[in-house]
Amino acid sequence: MSNLIVRSITGALFVAALIGAILWDPIAVAAVFGLFMLLGVDEFARLVNQHTSYSMQRGFAVTIAVLAFAGFTAVLLGELDGTYLFLLFPLALVSLVSSLFRKSTTALQDTGLLFFSWLYILVPFLMILHLAFIVKNPWEFVGMFVLIWSNDTFAYVCGRLFGRTKLFERISPKKTWEGTIGGIVFALIAGWCWATWVSELNEPYLFWLIVAPFIALGAIFGDLFESQLKRQIGVKDSGNILPGHGGILDRFDAALMAIPFFYGFWMVCC
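Above: the chain's sequence. Below: its structure in token form.
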């Protein structure tokens, strides 16, 4: 089976899992995205441990992330008092204490990478989880991913057709300004279409046309950041769990930085 066919099948199944969970039920979102979050944190820790001189506490990173995600889910379902989540803060600080007993010259950097994995991966997934419970029309939620995917797709297409001027050649040699601008323009078009066909907001055009370029910029920076991460570590893909696409971080690279933009605007405007 050719790589294109494998890539297409994997991509279709990935999109179906995401959209299916969003349209089905918030609990389905918690299950599907919780799994992706767990795999993403574990993947990041594995990359650090296998390809750098640093040493993350892989099991601890995943444990705290899962406890935070599961606890937040329980709070949103009304099964747990939200104040109990504050117990995660002293639990997370155990890593700082443990660094004192590790005979390593990189103990401080190791701990910094541990906390970074939660900020970079866990926090955006917690935002997704919260949106699943507060957005009344799930198609509004789907719209966020439509904008991200529109930017990614048309940035690639426009870059291939018109790309001449390099964007960040040091980090990602194939990305161009023409492709970047094309991605933002088509994200705006996708936002306008979504406001026309789906949105039930009081001022749909204003919201989607404002949020679209910010989501596009977040997606661009997220893509570039992961490219920089892989380049510095010295790997082509973050993993191989998704045939034809690489790892979880390869699929969520754009979303991890685009989600906070959408979440912030949604919380303020809606």
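The chain has a mean pLDDT of 92.
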